[in-house]
Amino acid sequence: MAVRRREGRAGGRAADEATPAPAVRVRMTGTQRRQQLVDIARELFAEKGFEATSIEEIAHRAGVSKPVVYEHFGGKEGVYAVVVDREMRRLLDSVLTALGAGDEHPRDLLERAAHALLDYVEGSSDGFRIMVRNSPVATSTGTFSSLLSDIASQVEHILGRHFDERGYDPKLAALYAQALVGMVALTGQWWLEVRKPDKDEVAAHLVNLAWNGLSAMKVTPTLRTG
């Protein structure tokens, strides 16, 4: 008597049952697709840098063809400029909000500004890494140095008012604003990688150095040498 072999058919059915159904591609709006591409490019620029990131890789991660990326941004330089502009605006808004309450004590404003920068470094490490690198795109909407200049101009305005009240030359407010902002920004770059001590302690030490230096300032400082 012939024996019917069902293993093959059964195996075939099992294989069919085990094969997942093809994923249903969700069609994005133009705005959603643009945001997706910006998010993916942001990750790649932070991870690999501008030069090592390609349009092909951005498109591949997004599951689209290269022409889609070109359609939205015109090229790699275009998407990079958008990423940098958004990060700069986010950090600038955060710091300016901290400095917005101009009637507060200057030490409180200094604490809030230092915390705002460190909060951004902690919560948006990828964005900060992208910004602190030298911009490879001449047509980029801004650079980290121009961002710091914008922040320093706000600090200058606050310092100038208090300098005038305390008998210091308000024209020197610009110099001190650049020094303060530069100190906090460079410390933020260092803390981005080491993350020690913790954020509150770093902010406290920044304020300790800056405020005690400001509060003990001489009206006409001189050098001990030269």
Order of helices and strands: HHHHHHHHHH
Helix content: over 70%
What fraction strand? under 5%
Radius of gyration, Cα only, in angstroms?
27 Å
How many beta-strand segments?
0
Figure out the total of helices.
Answer: 10
Mean pLDDT: 86
Based on helices, strands and strand pairing, what is the structural class?
mainly alpha
Q: N-to-C terminal Cα separation, in Å?
A: 113 Å
Shape: elongated
Report on the biggest sheet: none
Q: In terms of per-residue confidence, which ranges show pLDDT below 50 for 5 or more consecutive residues?
A: none
Task: Please explain how this structure is put together.
With 226 residues, this protein is mainly α. The chain has ten helices and no strands. Helix 5 (76-99) crosses helix 7 (125-132) and helix 6 packs antiparallel against helix 10 (199-215). The longest helix has 24 residues, at 76-99. The protein is elongated, with a radius of gyration of 27 Å. The model has no long low-confidence stretch (mean pLDDT 86).
List the topology elements.
Layout: H1 7-18, H2 30-48, H3 55-62, H4 66-73, H5 76-99, H6 106-123, H7 125-132, H8 144-166, H9 173-194, H10 199-215
Helix pairs in contact: 2-3, 2-5, 2-7, 3-4, 4-5, 5-6, 5-7, 5-8, 6-9, 6-10, 8-9
Key words describing this protein structure:
single chain, 226 residues, mainly alpha, 10 helices, elongated
